[in-house]
Amino acid sequence: MIQGLCEELGQIEYIFSDKTGTLTRNLMEFFKCSIGGISYGCGITEIERGIAQRDGLKIHEEQRSAGAIIEKGFNFDDPRLMRGAWRNEPNPDLCKEFFRCLAICHTVLPEGDESPEKIFYQAASPDEAALVTAAKNFGFFFYRRTPTTVYVRESHTEQMGKIKDVSYEILNVLEFNSTRKRQSVVCRFPDGRLVLYCKGADTVIFERLAESVDDVRKVTREHLEHFGSSGLRTLCLAYKDLNPEAYESWNEKFIQAKSALRDREKKLDEIAELIEKDLILIGSTAIEDKLQEGVPNCIETLSRAGIKIWVLTGDKMETAINIAYACNLINNEMKQFIISSETDAIREAEERGDQVEIARVIKDEVNKELKKSLEEAQQYLQTVAGPKLALVIDGKCLMYALDPTLRITLLSLSLNCTSVVCCRVSPLQKAQVTSLVRKGAKKITLSIGDGANDVSMIQAAHVGVGISGMEGMQAVMASDFAIAQFRFLTDLLLVHGRWSYLRICKVVMYFFYKNLTFTLTQFWFTFRTGFSGQRFYDDWFQSLYNVFFTALPVIVLGLFEKDVSASLSKRYPELYREGIRNSFFKWRVVAVWASSAVYQSLVCYLFVTASAFDGKNSSGKMFGLWDVSTMVFTCLVIAVNLRILLMSNSITRWHHITVLGSILAWLVFAFVYCGIMTPRDRNENVYFVIYVLMSTFYFYFTLLLVPVVALLADFIYQGVERWFFTYDYQIVQEIHRHEPDSCNADQLEIANELSPEEARSYAISQLPRELSKHTGFAFDSPGYESFFASQLGIYAPQKAWDVARRASMRSRPKAPKKK
């Protein structure tokens, strides 16, 4: 299994990636919001700067207000909502509901002192922590939770500057899951008021709004599109006042569903649908999650390597598109096919509210868009200089596109695209898309994610990679490989993946070659014996051929083989395409190795048998069967072991030790085995054979001639191949043939990636050292480090003990010698 994983690492053609925590840092900051149709928040996001740079525009940075608060999870700047100023807004009651929804509708646990400065929020996701932190800074400080109560310290609610502690009784929690895409809380105010607070994705919240909020819905939708185009993660907030009698009736059904032994989750979702309707829209939140370091360069490098990257995210389409632009997944030169459920026809069907009609309209629209996009894509691909293609599709359309009647069209269109972005998708849809490419297209796939919602996607791919981030270790535990950041995929695939694929291919081919060569020599012998069953080699020779005499060199090959260094592998990512094409394990390669085995077996067998036909040993007797077979076996062991040096791109001292050691192991074994015979042994056939052979000139001449002739064809073939049928890595080898050693080059590259301070520390650590000759001190001799540093132009500050030692070593006046 491990061998298969390592081999597949060098053949990955499709990467399926989550966005949050995988491409981004998963460090959420509350940045903007919309309340009652009014947008709040100033500032420019990292994505907006990237968009302006892409369009050639200049952005003027806005100065932050004097009282702006900067805290982990909170980067909001708008005086209209801070320090109770929201009371002067057009909708102060709606602002109050907005802040209460943030402070109550969550599952966060407070830790530490119950003060705004010292409290710490333990949340299931960074989003929730950021929202609760925002509520605290807006004056609604959540500081304590019990199983049934949430305590909030509210400021400026009744009058400016007044603070009071309010306890809200939590009656029901309708938890978030990938299907619902929302979370709701039913709470009772101290005055007995019953309220349902709900937060979730805009697509599910808008479906459950009352008809009286159409104006606010329209404006909020525009704000959401603006937030999404700025690369922000959005959530919609809504509430509903509940009638006590209606709530009691609903609560009985909820308790029954909660205590059900079968289909509990399904029944809870159905009961939640009964109360999560006719909601009043409060507004929306916008949270910024910045890109990880090195993501754009990593994606660009992987694209040059021939790898196609798909991003599967739960964010809005606008957010996903702009993140894709920021990380070089999509650019202006690409032709984009956008399949969205935000069309006029679908909106009209949703406004009518007939679910059957909505499903029919969406499916028809998706079918029409898929066929239209596929026709355009095929036309672009027929042109010589056609643009690269990108597909963007949202989760609602994807649900119908994955239908058996449409999935073939979706697969055909997707495979023609360089990049694919799927928005508002559930974990199940992530796994379905991955399986579609793996099973439908028969391509090698890799999935990478950081959270529990990515586990199904990770397990659906050939290779799963987990990122140990902010969302726990579920993804890491379910994956095959674990890394810290997305950019390390470059090293994992382009360096270690390539090397592993190359090593496994060579090891498999070498095993095939050496065993076929060994077997064919016995096969040629059967023609002389008339297929009588006479064995050619001694039993111990056959048993130990693979165990001792040819085992170690191939192990060293599998451990140390590399065609180019790690730095060159990343410098020329196009080398990875050889693995995607499976260049080193095609039938042509197998045929070449088989031909080599046939040729070498014929040389070893025919040269020895033909020359030994009239050969005589030192006593004048003719060579017998066991003399000839031992001679053939000796030539075979030498040729097969030396062949591994011809196929190696990097030869280390371990290659020399194992090759020479394997040959010597055979000779030592032959000396011992042929020199011992007891009445119980059956080795009288080969007794003293090696001593008889080594007493003749024929043995040494054959020992030099046969392996050379056997390997000559391989030598010529490799020369012709390198000159006229060159692999890509051989071209790179020739370009950098006269450069410094690859190991030093890798160290230089590492040093260049360090910060100035780290580079100086690294350079100081590489300085030569000299042991102290001054007794009484356990440190370096004074001045040595500073001296060597100054010679290399590196600033190395003096150490305290150097100064002390110089003071102790000051020259003293010599005492006059006594005469």
Automatic annotation (TrEMBL):
NCBIfam families: ATPase-Plipid, ATPase_P-type. It catalyses: ATP + H2O + phospholipidSide 1 = ADP + phosphate + phospholipidSide 2. PANTHER family: PHOSPHOLIPID-TRANSPORTING ATPASE, PROBABLE PHOSPHOLIPID-TRANSPORTING ATPASE. Its cofactor is Mg(2+). Its main location: membrane. Keywords: ATP-binding, Magnesium, Membrane, Metal-binding, Nucleotide-binding, Translocase, Transmembrane, Transmembrane helix. It holds the Pfam family Cation_ATPase. This is Phospholipid-transporting ATPase. GO terms for biological process: Golgi vesicle budding; phospholipid translocation. Its EC number is 7.6.2.1. The active site is at D18. It is a multi-pass membrane protein. GO terms for cellular component: endoplasmic reticulum; Golgi membrane; plasma membrane; trans-Golgi network. One of its GO terms (molecular function) is flippase activity. It comes from the Eukaryota. It comes from Brassica carinata.
